[in-house]
Fold this protein.
Amino acid sequence: MYKEKSIAVVVPAYNEEQQILKVTNTMPNFVDAIIVVDDCSNDKTVEVVNNSALDKTRITILTHEKNQGVGAAIATGYKYARDNNFDIAVVMAGDAQMNPDDLPRLLDPIVEGRVDYAKGNRLIYNNAYNIIPKVRFFGNAVLSFLTKIASGYWHVADSQAGYTAINSTALHVVAWDKMYKRYGQPNDLLVKLNVHSFRVVDVPIEPLYDVGEKSDIKICKVIFTISWLLVKLFFWRLKEKYIIRDFHPLVLFYFIGMALLFFSIILAIRLVIVWSSTGIFPDVTGLGLLFSWVSGLQSIFFAMWFDSEYDKR
């Protein structure tokens, strides 16, 4: 128990036989349950936990019959925590890249009733730029910006940080079976939380690298995959939150802005064709391009501002 709240830690694991004990054996004493979710590992992850974990009384091992992805493993752990009525569920990766000393900082905002979901932010940690590999830092920054737009949580960053804590209310509301199953799970969850108007806060956490972890993530591929996911989630959130649940004119600003920007692209193509073929600059087309481009950007910026103000709390 932590300040009279029961705590379950979900540990998604795939081929983590070298690292998993660093996670289970350093878990703080106030954690009531350690839920190791083995995502069909082809190494000895489960065997290592069963044979070598120091405190087996707190450990529950859940296994997937086929590999589904880290998002699916987290969802499995969340459902177990929900069904067993834990007050707070935490996610800590099985590769020991999350410092257990940071856990109280994630729990306190939830225990105090200030938020429903607390997520780690490595980017604002002291000297983070020199600790995090540059490619990862850049990729994370890009995805964080896109996630702000897609999720509506403009005050949060480090969207790919998986060190999180969620309260029982959110655990019971979110449809975990519909959650994105792979690396984009934190982005998908932020969008879902925003639609349900849950409160989210960033908490500074220490970035840990070179602790023996192995990553198969290809940054370039991940950026494009998650960017496309965020585009779809953005339009889903607008429909779900601002049309179906509660209409807000920011939707009109977004779509008018997008229409004007699309029209400006058509005008730009026409301008280039006419100018290159005749040698005469088409004044009317140029003015139309300038007007539609400026008006489109202004409309989208207004929509973003409305979105930010709506979710300010």
